[in-house]
Amino acid sequence: MKKSIRVLGIALVAIAALLLPLNGQAACESGVFFGSYYSQILGTTNGPSLRSSFWAMGGGNVLTSAGIDNGPVAETGDWMHPYGSMPIALLSAWGANVNYNGCIETLLQPSSMAYGLSDVDGTGNMVYAVGCATRINTAFTEFDFTNPPGCTSGCAPITLVPAPKALVTATSRQGTQAQITVGSPNFAPGFYGDGTAGCAMNLVIPQYEVFRKEIARNGAAPADHDTSTWVSSGIFNIGTPAIVNTTCASDCDVYVGVLPVYNSGFKTGEPATGAADRLGPNGTKVQAGPILANPPKPRISNPKKTQ
User: Fold this and answer.
1) What are 156-206's pLDDT values in tens digits?
2) pLDDT at position 298 over 70
3) Half-sphere exposure of 164 (CA within 13 A, CB side)
4) Are 200 and 250 in contact (CB under 8 A)?
5) How far is CA 62 from each of CA 36, 58, 98, 179, 271, rounded to the nearest angstrom?
6) What pairing do the DSSP bridges indicate for beta strands 191-192 and 126-134?
7) Looking at per-residue confidence, does 303 or 117 come out higher?
8) DSSP tag of 4
C-alpha cells in the first residue's frame, strides 16, 4: 500500500473515532463504519442541490422517524465530506450520529446497505448514483463503497451520471385521451455494487416510477424536473413497460419522465430535508384531447379557374 494511502487510512481512523458519540443513545454504539476511503464522488459539489440518503437493504423507511437509515440527518457535514485535496468522500459510521434511525446490527448478517445520490448538471437535468455494499465484519470499514471493490490505489471515482430519458415506445387513441406506453429505463450506468448477492442490481433498483405533465397545446416543454409539479402515473417493475393514461380536459400536450425506485422505497429526493424526488429528461411529446393535432387550413379552389 502506498504511504499516502496508509496516512489517509490513519487519518480517517482518527476522524471516525471523533465521530462516535459519547452517550448511550447512538443507533449503533459499536460504530459500524461505512464509506469509500479511496473512491472520490464526482458529478456533485456537495452543495444545496445534492439530495441523498443511505439505508439498510430491506430495513430502510422513507419516514424519517422509522426504519434503519440516515433518518432526519442530511449529508452535508455529516456523512459526505471534502477531505484534503479530494473532492468528496462518503464516510461515516452507524454510531456516529444519535439521530440516525435504528442499527444495522439488528438485521440478520451478512447485511447490506445502500446509498442514493442525485443532483443536477449544468443544463438542469438530473444526474444520479446508487451504490450498495455487503458487510465484511472483519474489516475496519465494514460497508466499503470503494469502486471497484477492494481497490486501494488508483481507484475509479463514483460518478453521478445523467438520468435516462423517458422512452415513449407506443401511443394509442382512447376516446379523446391518449394511452402512452413507456419502456423500462436502464439505470445500470449509475449503479455501483460490490458484486455480492445481497447487492444485486435488481434488488437495489427493483422498480421505476413514471410521472406525466399535461400542458396547453403548443405550450413550452416543461423545464422543471421536481416531481412536486408533476403527476404520478404509477410504479412499475424494472423490465416491464408502463402504461400511462392522459386526463386532459381539452387539447393538450403530454410529457412523461421517469425515476428509479430503490430498495425500501427510497428514490431521488431527500426525505431528511423533504426535498422532492427528481425526474430524468422529458420523453417525446404526445398529444391528447378532442383534436390530436392542429389541422391544416382547407384549400378552396377557384371555381372560375375550373370552368
Assistant:
1) 999 999 999 999 999 999 899 999 999 999 999 999 999 999 999 999 999
2) no
3) 19
4) no
5) 24, 12, 18, 31, 6
6) parallel
7) 117
8) H
**Do 283 and 182 meet the contact criterion of CB atoms below 8 Å apart?**
yes
Which CATH number does 163-288 carry?
2.60.40
- Domain positions in the chain are 3-161, 163-288
User: Are the CB atoms for 194 and 233 separated by under 8 Å?
Assistant: no
Neighbours of 21 (CB within 10 A): 15
pLDDT at 155 over 80: yes
Among 39-48, 189-198, 277-286, whose mean pLDDT is lowest?
39-48
- CA dist 38 and 189 (Å) reads 20
Helix (H) or strand (E) holding 235: strand 231-237
Determine what percent of the chain falls in helix, strand and coil, rounding each to the nearest 5.
15, 35, 55
* CA–CA separation, 272 and 84 (whole Å): 27
Question: Cα–chain-centroid distance for residue 138?
Answer: 30
Cell 446509498 found at: 115
How far is residue 128's CA from residue 257's CA, in Å, rounded to a whole number? 15
Query: What integer best gives the mean pLDDT of the chain?
Result: 85
